[in-house]
UniProtKB/TrEMBL annotation:
Keywords: Membrane, Transmembrane, Transmembrane helix. It comes from the Bacteria. The chain crosses the membrane at residues 38-58, 65-86, 113-137. This is Uncharacterized protein. It comes from Micromonospora tulbaghiae.
């Protein structure tokens, strides 16, 4: 078992797959397919973090908060890449002007800010989802098979 799996409770491919659940929202939003303020937009925004919380509650990793922050950070990478790939479709040269900057410098500055913003946003979604997961894990009992595994791994007194 890898150190990441022991600490985070999931393999790296599983963590990436969980983060990728939120990727469709980036594409649909940037292309203007799903307008903000609709039920579909809300489901695309809230659904993936709810799935992350459900997965953590089901798996009961040793460090659920860290697991969720990692998933959120990975989501931030998807968010950043998606915004960069779809930049011209969603914003392009309609980007707000910055007085005195050449268009190339303006675009580089705005793209860099968008990447940083995406990474922070994804990580913060992970932080909030992690807090929810930790609180729920204290309130909700672990699934029976997880309790049995945990009991079996404890040393006998």
């Amino acid at each position: 078992m890898s150190a990441g799996r022991r600490t985070l409770g999931f393999s790296w491919p599983a963590l990436v797959a969980l983060a990728a659940l939120a990727a469709p929202r980036v594409v649909l939003h940037d292309l203007g397919v799903v307008p903000e303020g609709t039920v579909v937009a809300a489901l695309l925004a809230v659904g993936p973090p709810l799935c992350w919380v459900a997965a953590v509650l089901w798996r009961r990793p040793p460090r659920p908060f860290l697991t969720m922050v990692v998933i959120g950070a990975l989501y931030g990478v998807f968010l950043a890449v998606g915004h960069q790939v779809l930049w011209d479709s969603s914003l392009g040269m309609d980007a707000p002007g910055l007085a005195g900057l050449a268009p190339g410098a303006r675009e580089a500055l705005l793209r860099g800010a968008a990447v940083m913003s995406s990474l922070v946003t994804g990580t913060m979604v992970g932080v909030i989802a992690g807090a929810v997961a930790v609180l729920l894990s204290r309130v909700l009992p672990a699934p029976a098979r997880r309790r049995e595994q945990a009991d079996a791994s404890r040393p006998l007194a």
